[in-house]
Amino acid sequence: MNIYVANGLFSIGDRYVNAEIAKALRAADDTFHLYVPQENDAINDKEAYASSAEIAKADLAELRNSDMLVAVIDGVEIDSGVAAEIGAFSMLGRPIVALCSDVRQQGTGNKQKIEALKENALENQFIYRNLFVVGLIKENGVIVSTIEDVVREVLARR
């Protein structure tokens, strides 16, 4: 099974999360073939040069060749490259497992938080994700909150 792992790759935190997801998936099933863009030095060695067209061509080829997309949708907003990868992959009608680990998902039953939000939208203590992107994920997949859940969902959908 070919799996594309989509996330930002420019910060130490993103690269760490990507490596942890890859490690967990490889440990769960050593027959998985993972495409983790940060591991592709041909287009992502930042000491070298790759044009935007080369990056798009390489990543689109990997998306087309993948059976499943694992996408990290954390951050202040969903990484623009990840959102584009989700959009492109959703057109293939294949499974998407998204990871949203933001702790602001907690406390949805807290009445004080709900009342504060009703009174003043600037008191929003919850997370917002772009609803179009969330809809694309839900059309063929699921959103989970831990790396362990990612592995469980990938194994269930293979």
UniProtKB/TrEMBL annotation:
One GO biological process from the UniProt record? Answer: deoxyribonucleoside monophosphate catabolic process
**Keyword annotations for this protein?**
Transferase
Q: Which GO terms describe its molecular function?
A: 5-hydroxymethyl-dUMP N-hydrolase activity; transferase activity
Q: Tell me, what's a Pfam family for it? A: Nuc_deoxyrib_tr
Fetch the Gene3D superfamilies from UniProt. Answer: 3.40.50.450
Q: Which PANTHER family match?
A: 2'-DEOXYNUCLEOSIDE 5'-PHOSPHATE N-HYDROLASE 1
Q: What is the protein name stated in its UniProt record? A: Nucleoside 2-deoxyribosyltransferase
